[in-house]
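Q: What would this chain look like folded?
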Amino acid sequence: MDGAGYGTFVVLAVVLVLVPGPDFAVVVRNTLAGGRGRGAWSAVGITVSNVLQGTAAATGLAAVVVRVEPLFEAIRWLGVAYLGFLAVQAFRSAVRGSYPALDGDGDGDGDGDDDDGGTTAGPRARAGLRQGFLSNITNPKVLAFYLAVLPQFLGPGTAVPVLLAYALTHAVVGLGYLLLLVAVLHRARRVLARRPVRRALDAFTGCALLAFGVRLAADR
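A: My prediction, written as structure tokens:
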């Protein structure tokens, strides 16, 4: 593995994860809706999907998916539909404007513990994990990213472990950024959870998710 080339790839990975996209919008919505735990689990779901898609690219499976146009299109439209579904949920939340009051730890679960415990922690965690995973795995642009970017840093015949190292690096960088985002949002949640602010954020998140869905539908 070329050290200079790998360092350049890490810099590119950092720049790419800083560009807001569907992952950003999903994590923001989950953190505001369910606290730090749900936001962190949505980040984990996104990372699991990135690892799977990176592994598919490294082993050649992603190239097969991209070449089989009906399969690729099916994934793309599933992604469009799921982003639209999440956008509708955000809009409905903004219209209702009904949010649970925050408790002592600021997560709104009523347990007062800082770890998002309590009886609702399991469902919230599963919801965050599911939304993060599905929003990312149904985005074929992630596969296209790995197939387009990795060859720029690695020549033909590169060993699969090296390809995996690059792909997993991108996933880890993304996870670190998303967990940092969750921590920042959690600290500001008492301000962000005020009803007018929360309704505006839900409306903005819905618009962002809808825009990402439209862009995914329009892309070729």
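Confidence is low (pLDDT under 50) at residues 109-120.
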